[in-house]
Design brief:
The complex is a heterodimer. Chain A has helices at 14-24, 41-45, 72-76, 101-105, 144-151, 170-176, 190-206, 223-231, 243-250, 255-258, 262-277, and strands spanning 2-6, 29-33, 48-62, 82-85, 88-91, 111-126, 129-136, 159-163, 181-186, 210-215, 235-239. By secondary structure, chain A is an alpha/beta fold. The N and C termini of chain A lie close together (9 Å). Chain B has 11 helices and 11 strands. Chain B is elongated, with a radius of gyration of 22 Å.
Chain lengths: 278, 288
């Protein structure tokens, strides 16, 4: 089963929920941190990293000996990532989406592919828990291809917890697609509610069942609960604001380590998800 | 005209609450919400929309079943596995590269332009505002960020205002990169947690990569003063200006619930006092 933890608004507690569920369930669980722009799960899990892999995406390289300057590569490229200027062809690797169109269309077979670094994937373990995350190279714009690479580590027959990035655009979709359940983490404030509505919209486009965790549930107002009731999104857990939890989080400590009674609550949360997602 | 962009790396550190407070304090400015993916500034600014435009960007392939002979070339060429066995394009997977459209021997593929969001020019009680909404699950957020900043600048020039206050997106990817170019400075709002520190370091590195001067403030400082000081220490080491500390103050959330800036809600609150002194310092440092 794949559970993706998402939120719309940033900073609502996705990583807290993802890491605490993963640790509470013990072995035969993997956590994939797909928030590759700002991955944080490793700060809490503190895995021993066993494998580091640099991930690249193919980008064109032109052999000017073969090129006849016909300009077809520039014509097919939708991203203005390759242009003929005077007597030369300039590929702009940072703009390239790796579709391979220029290589395919070149009548002289003058284009081959080299790689642009997207970032790295690190994989390791903490006790029985398998940990994988992607780390986008600083300066790299495109996160979805790296997210898809992280998701290739998904093992069938195990529970996969995905820590998704904030927002509702392509990186989030790449982190939720083909999940069996999306757990949305929100806070009961106008910003939290507004972004939750967008996130629920994204989940419904993908047709995945979802449920809600309300974090800092006693700060703000009741509008998130009213919305959840109206839209029939089940509220599966509430985490009240507690300075002890906030301070533990600030130090990189997990709720279940500081307050062991929470372990059972996170196990219960998983059971409810299992009931809903079947 | 100068633009200050507020970013954070990590989401939820308080960017929007702080820029809303600045909106109360700054004179002669235009507001711009460049967090187009999950825009929230309008919830406080309550804009009266004066102009509404579609945002058109990118293309999606659509196979015309009547012309398709199921030769399979498109499926072989598509690197996104966006075309199903029965030759239907999954519009969410489609990257808009046009390779299938270009090569289809039957010319059976259309490639229409997408409408993937809306952008607005508005009036608010704090002055003009440019803002946008990216459609759910849409792409090209970077292009919409560039567009809305451009529109914000135009508004400022037309109205002879010398400051653009831009609320940026979280992360370090495409929308954030699109929010940096040409800014006079970025203000990084960090939070004193291990995550906040990790993410602040990456976004500060990004600002340095694009050679944009960066300044930081630590929000909710008292939640973990050790982490707060570590963040400030890192900043000083990297020549990032340190401009002040904001205490953890529930008045921020209470103000948000009422749709107010903290300056409007309680100008004597600790949070407001801190933000005021940061704004004063920012005005001096950037010669606004």
């Amino acid at each position: 089963m794949i559970i993706s933890i998402a939120s719309g608004k940033g900073g609502t507690g996705k990583t807290t929920v993802a890491t605490n569920i993963a640790v509470s369930l013990g072995s035969d669980v993997q956590i994939l941190d797909c928030d590759v722009e700002e991955p944080n799960s490793h700060l809490f899990i503190q895995p021993t990293i066993e494998e580091v892999k640099t991930i690249t995406t193919p980008v064109p390289e032109v052999d000017m000996e073969k090129c006849n300057l016909c300009g077809k590569c520039g014509e097919i490229c939708q991203f203005k990532a390759i242009v003929v200027i005077g007597e030369t062809v300039l590929p702009f690797h940072e703009l390239c989406h790796s579709c391979g169109g220029c290589m395919e269309v070149c009548p002289e077979k003058a284009i081959t592919e080299t790689g642009r670094e997207l970032g790295v994937i690190e994989r390791g373990h903490k006790n029985g828990l398998e940990f994988v995350h992607g780390k986008l190279r600083v300066g790299e714009a495109m996160s979805p291809p790296l997210i898809r690479k992280v998701r290739e580590y998904t093992r069938p027959d195990t529970l996969t917890i995905i820590d998704a990035p904030p927002g509702t655009s392509c990186p989030v979709i790449a982190s939720m697609k083909d999940a069996d359940f999306v757990l949305l983490v929100t806070e009961p404030t106008p910003f939290g509610l507004h972004d939750l509505k967008l996130a629920v919209g994204a989940v419904s486009i993908l047709g995945i069942p979802c449920g809600l965790v309300i974090n800092r549930s006693d700060m703000g107002d009741d509008q998130v609960k009213e919305y959840a009731q109206k839209e029939e999104v089940p509220v599966l857990m509430e985490i009240p604001f507690d300075r002890e939890i906030a301070e533990a989080y600030s130090k990189g400590e997990m709720i279940v380590d500081v307050m062991p009674e929470w372990k059972q609550k996170f196990q219960g949360l998983y059971q409810r998800i299992e009931e809903i997602a079947g | 005209m100068k633009e200050i962009v507020i970013i954070s790396g990590k989401g939820g550190t308080g960017k929007t609450s702080i820029i809303a407070a600045f909106a109360s304090l700054a004179k002669d400015k235009v507001l711009c919400d460049a967090d187009v993916d999950a825009a929230d500034l309008h919830l406080i600014m309550d804009p009266e929309i004066k102009e509404r435009h579609d945002f058109e960007s990118g293309y999606t392939a659509v196979i015309n079943q009547d012309k398709c002979t199921e030769c399979g070339l498109c499926r072989d060429l598509c690197r996104w596995s966006a075309i199903s066995e029965d030759f239907v394009v999954d519009s969410i997977e489609c990257e808009g590269c046009g390779v299938c459209y270009y090569f289809c021997p039957e010319k059976a593929i259309d490639f229409p332009l997408n409408t993937c969001g809306e952008w607005f020019l508005s009036d608010t009680r704090f002055g003009p505002m440019a803002h946008a909404r990216l459609g759910i699950a849409e792409e090209n957020s970077g292009k919409l960020v560039s567009l809305i900043r451009q529109e914000g600048k135009k508004l400022a020039e037309e109205k002879n205002l010398n400051l653009l206050l831009t609320d940026g997106p979280p992360g370090i990817g495409c929308p954030v990169i699109a929010s940096l170019g040409g800014a006079a400075a970025v203000l990084i709002v960090a939070e004193p947690t291990v995550s906040g520190r990790h993410d602040m370091e990456r976004v500060a590195e990004l600002a340095a990569f694009f050679k944009i001067p960066a300044i930081i403030c630590v929000n909710k400082f008292d939640l973990n003063p050790d982490q707060g000081e570590a963040i400030e220490g890192f900043a000083r080491e990297k020549n990032v200006g340190v401009i002040g500390r904001v205490p953890f103050d529930p008045a921020f959330t209470k103000a948000m619930v009422q749709g107010k800036t903290i300056v409007e809600f309680d100008s004597r609150s600790e949070g407001c006092t801190a933000v005021k002194s940061i704004w004063k310092e920012l005005v001096q440092r950037l010669e606004i």
